[in-house]
Amino acid sequence: MGEFTRRLRGGELGSLPGVLCTAVIWTVFQILDHQFLSPRNLSNLSVDLVGTGLIAVGIIFVLLLGEIDLSVGSVSGLTAAVFAVLNINDGLPEWVAIVAALLVGAAIGGLQGFFFARVGVPSFVVTLAGLLAWNGLMLHVLGASGTINLHDQGLVYALTNQYFHNTAAAYGLAALGVVMFFLASYQDRRRRRAAEVPYRPLGELALRSAVVAVVAFGAAYVLNQFEGLPLALLIFLVLVVGLDFVQRRTKYGRRICSIGGGAEATRRAGINVARVRVSVFAISGTLAALGGLFLASRVDSVGQTSGSSILMINSVAAAVIGGASLFGGRGRPWSALLGILVIQSIASGMLLMGIQTTVQYMITGGVLLAAVVLDSLSRRSQQAHGLA
């Protein structure tokens, strides 16, 4: 508790605002409508958040650089349209169309990263131009019909409609997650102890693991009360865990954070800053493409409204609300999960109560503003304590 209090006083809020916001939103909507925390609604919520959540994970990596990618919504719509045209109109095998869509997303991200990192065009301008250009290209690719329906028995359709009905799947995933969390924490403790730097006591590791176990098994129990473990949620969690490992445990991830903390110092340390920046934008484009496929799967079609600007706004908002900093150097893939949970919870509650979408936008905008204000105040506090 002393360490926790010290970090709060130093402005290191982490995921605390997102957790508190989620608790408040769930409490309010449950009071207003008792169906909000029902297994059916929570299961649907866990699937609805995946598409936008994947895009938000890509935004996290860009924000770590201290930059922004405004084109992710248009990229997701374009790549979904590419998949639909290749698979439905041209008859290519589904897996080929999926790979092609992902490659298009990676290429677009790499191209935008090149203009930013090599040519020197600000990322805001490059991706704003991309927002317009890729949206126009999407409309051109879709053609006169404007909408392409997907196969209802295909792989993409299964992304958000496949469930593991066996209760062992959800409980097994929960158990695996708790064990992995404890082992990773224990290994980190051993390394820090060997290096003679401050480390967490075993009692704290046990307490943290117990909290994770309560959340994981509670979620598994709720999911098993409806249809079981959704395939979409499983894929999302695997990607979040994998990308979190890349960010925190690899040289590449540490270089990304280093650039966000100070690009010039990183360059003088011998790191190819431009190459890392281009690769990060390529990651953002790839995850935008993957998110676009999940969003298309959810509605079983690709249309002119795919990849709207609201999608981009929600993705950026999810990253910031979850705890990522607009100033660079701070954020984790888990931030996207927490942030999109807040946004999608608002949307789900509004839908249950029959409230207009316009009100949802206003509430989401207010939550985003509050998150940015907290981010600014947190950074100011860290600077005052010599931590930033």
User: Could you report the average pLDDT, rounded to the nearest whole number?
Assistant: 88
Ends distance = 23 Å
Widest β-sheet, arrangement of strands: 1-4
Please give the share of residues in helix. Answer: over 70%
Q: Supply the helix-strand structural class.
A: mainly alpha
Radius of gyration: 21 Å
Pfam family, one: BPD_transp_2
Transmembrane segments: 12-32, 44-65, 72-89, 95-117, 124-143, 163-184, 205-223, 229-246, 276-296, 308-327, 334-353, 359-377
Subcellular location: Cell membrane
InterPro entries: ABC_transp_permease (IPR001851)
Task: Give the secondary structure arrangement, pairings included.
Layout: H1 2-9, H2 16-32, H3 39-64, H4 72-89, H5 94-119, H6 123-142, E1 147-149, H7 155-159, E2 163-164, H8 167-194, H9 202-224, E3 229-230, H10 231-249, H11 251-261, H12 263-268, H13 273-299, E4 301-303, H14 309-321, H15 333-353, H16 357-384
Antiparallel strand pairs: 1-4, 2-3
Helix pairs in contact: 2-15, 3-10, 3-13, 3-14, 3-15, 4-5, 4-6, 4-13, 5-6, 5-13, 8-9, 10-11, 11-13, 14-15, 14-16, 15-16
